[in-house]
Amino acid sequence: MSTSTKPPAGTRDFLPEAMEQRRQVIAVVERVYRSYGFLPLETPAMENLSTLLGKYGDEGDQLIFRLLHRGEKLTRTLSSQEPVDERRLADLGLRYDLTVPLARVVAQHGSRLPRIFRRFQVQPVWRADRPGRGRFREFFQCDADIVGSQSMGVEAELLGAVCEVFDELGFSELRVKLNHRQLLFALVSCAGVPEHLETDALVAMDKLDKIGPDGVAAELRDRGLHAAAIRELGPVLQRELGEDNEAILAALEARVGDSERGAQGIAELREVLRLTARGPAAGRLTVDPVLARGLSYYTGPIFEVEVSDLAGSLAGGGRYDELVGMFLGRKVPACGVALGLERILVVMGERGMFRPATSGPQVLVTCWSAELAPESVALAAELRRGSLRVELYPEPSKLGRQLKYAAGREIPLAAVVAPEELARGAVQLKDLRTGMRHECPRAEVGSRALALLEEA
Amino acid sequence: MSTSTKPPAGTRDFLPEAMEQRRQVIAVVERVYRSYGFLPLETPAMENLSTLLGKYGDEGDQLIFRLLHRGEKLTRTLSSQEPVDERRLADLGLRYDLTVPLARVVAQHGSRLPRIFRRFQVQPVWRADRPGRGRFREFFQCDADIVGSQSMGVEAELLGAVCEVFDELGFSELRVKLNHRQLLFALVSCAGVPEHLETDALVAMDKLDKIGPDGVAAELRDRGLHAAAIRELGPVLQRELGEDNEAILAALEARVGDSERGAQGIAELREVLRLTARGPAAGRLTVDPVLARGLSYYTGPIFEVEVSDLAGSLAGGGRYDELVGMFLGRKVPACGVALGLERILVVMGERGMFRPATSGPQVLVTCWSAELAPESVALAAELRRGSLRVELYPEPSKLGRQLKYAAGREIPLAAVVAPEELARGAVQLKDLRTGMRHECPRAEVGSRALALLEEA
């Protein structure tokens, strides 16, 4: 039986070229997050199913990869007389996102963490989604979260950081859509949507960018909303509330300012705008009263980052003050942002935004003969001590073949250790970019190589 | 039902302090590997079970975590009339090491890789072992491998790199035990062990350091070896073959030099010693004819790195010329080394070998009042542009409380944005290490902070 050598459906091998691009982006993300005082955290790939289930909705629960019991436990289940129940086959699952593990960590290790805890986390997550173009079963998330403060200063920090990340990556014309979960609920409630249909209404409204205002209105009708409520939501769906943030907020205030949730949402959005006015997010925030960000654990401000000429978002986040409490039993305020790393990589690739890789080998030390091989090993060791990245050709072979190998790998220089030059204490340094050869004293090969690399 | 917030048995949360130590080690490993021309590779956490099974022995196969089928596939299996067979519950498993995925990648992407492919890979692997002290179900491996050459120059490069890694990490008195799989087989064969017991004999001999020569002899007896064969192996088990490498190799040659496998093993070990004589591994290699490195896929030289005053090894590897062929159908020579990252971290921790972490926030910008908060946001943004790592206290609170928070986090400086100083265009910079306060003009806070940080 021949074995397929492809990676499993929905997963990828990252060859060196792809790795360099991934690392380029992750390095920028980390540098910016560090500049905001975020510290690294990593959690295990596997979590107890009891930790994961019930946090992502029914659909999410279905997409969690579960780890089959082994040994006795499995035998016991399979040999039982009763029909086999799925729940007796697994009690561990793979991480589905980085937020639930963070909440668990805060509940477990809270006393060892700073009172206000800023962490970033860059790790893969797994979802048993149907694989498709740009949809993977294993993909990386880059999250930054601040746990422990209810202040909108937290939102200001996160929005500043995420704007700086995109600036540093080279994206221009950044736009951040901003909304508030409580404001959303107030909007549909004040339009006359009964409480048990509030969530349904939000699900439909969340599709505005995909299906347009008429599509949303149709879906609202299908979900059982009265025509009056749908008419009431019309100007919101048409985005006809106002030209700028303050006009939109004033229009929203007129609609829902009397409700507790509405007033809270409007006040907090105003505070976010005030606090960000002199940081990197200044001028980039747009209040969008339809933004809903799915049906997850958000409780306060929510936001999504878009760049010009690109549908969909490259990052998103919001406040989730209830999630840690699901583990700890007491409320712990929290807010975070996740970058869509895989999408960012695709867009940067399409737009030619990557810097050329600069961490491959700089010098190939050739191998003339079995007899002279130790000379090559010694030279390679010396050059590495001089902080060059050096590959040793590991076997004797025709010089032309070795130089061709170096050129194919885009290694700029080759140090040819050959008997004649060696006899007079010299090594030939060949610049494979220009074809020029330089004979230099053995002790100067490193400094000469560095000079040639700098010239270019 | 309250949920446990511990990570699953055998796995760990890495809080920031642990992360900094892990990253410190990984950064050194990567820097050295890069200096040898190795390039990064990453593979998916999950592999097809057909890729994994049959590569690690029966015991290994049992330790592979399998991913339970979902949805229809699972329902079909569970609702079938026949008894449920384990093989119908899963066809994916979690990565068990980094070598088999590399072999699969070479078979799959070979045409896109350099003819001689050097890759390093730092990723977690999973094994369903019984968790215990220092034994985890999720742990990181750091592998470097060279694929595509049969030359012992490959071994010389790997041994040089691994010695440099330990030098750079600060380990002293490094010792590398060196042996050869073919030589081992020749030794037991020439001692009169029948072919079907060769592997059994190696398994027993591999335990020498744990159970001593008498223990090994007893086990060899139990496994059915004749007394004559055991007697013949006596000097090998007693390590009485010679004082230095050449003496040991000469003694081995006298025993097994006439067998093809023996002659090959001795010649290749001599070549490794010759090629490493002028690199970082020079003087550190000791031929140890009992070293066996388990029962895995090795076919040629094998080695293990030890440091003084520490039982067991911190790294190990060897040549495996058959593994890629299991996927590709044709032989591809390969050799690699794996670092025991988790063990290295424990030892470095016990011996106080970590540098103090230097990537936490350097300045806390305080928050005086809701009204002044935008001033704090603006100052934090400015300081970050001046390449400082800055945490903004996100909510108004008593100044003493904020300074105490900064001190607790070991943030060296606090920038106090207060109304009085602000009125005269100034900010107070407090050095929390000395207690000194410095009032400085708003525009100079960054340069002043950098100066204070450099002084220390």
Outline:
By secondary structure, the first copy, chain A, is of the alpha+beta class. Chain A has helices spanning 16-35, 49-52, 57-62, 71-79, 99-109, 153-169, 181-190, 198-205, 208-222, 227-237, 245-256, 260-276, 323-328, 341-350, 373-385, 399-408, 419-423, 445-455; strands spanning 39-40, 46-48, 66-68, 90-94, 117-126, 138-147, 174-180, 285-287, 301-307, 315-319, 334-339, 363-365, 390-392, 413-416, 426-431, 437-441. The first copy, chain A, folds into 2 domains: 16-45 and 95-350, Bira Bifunctional Protein, Domain 2 (BirA Bifunctional Protein, domain 2, 2-Layer Sandwich); 363-455, Rossmann fold.
General description of the model:
The structure is a homodimer of 456-residue chains. Chain A is α+β, with helices and mostly antiparallel strands and 456 residues long. Chain A folds into 2 domains: 16-45 and 95-350, BirA Bifunctional Protein, domain 2, CATH 3.30.930.10; 363-455, Anticodon-binding domain (Rossmann fold, 3-Layer(aba) Sandwich). In chain A, 43% of the residues lie in helices and 18% in strands. The first copy, chain A, contains 18 helices and 16 strands. Chain A has helices at 16-35, 49-52, 57-62, 71-79, 99-109, 153-169, 181-190, 198-205, 208-222, 227-237, 245-256, 260-276, 323-328, 341-350, 373-385, 399-408, 419-423, 445-455; strands at residues 39-40, 46-48, 66-68, 90-94, 117-126, 138-147, 174-180, 285-287, 301-307, 315-319, 334-339, 363-365, 390-392, 413-416, 426-431, 437-441. Chain A has an 8-stranded mixed β-sheet. A 5-stranded mixed β-sheet of chain A has the order 13-12-14-15-16, with helices on both faces. Chain A has a 3-stranded antiparallel β-sheet with strand order 2-4-3. In chain A, strand 12, helix 15 (373-385) and strand 13 (390-392) form a beta-alpha-beta unit. Chain A is elongated, with a radius of gyration of 29 Å. Chain A starts with 15 loop residues before the first helix and ends with a helix. The mean pLDDT of chain A is 93. Chains A and B meet through helix 1, strand 1, strand 2, strand 3 and helix 4 of A and helix 1, strand 1, strand 2, strand 3 and helix 4 of B.
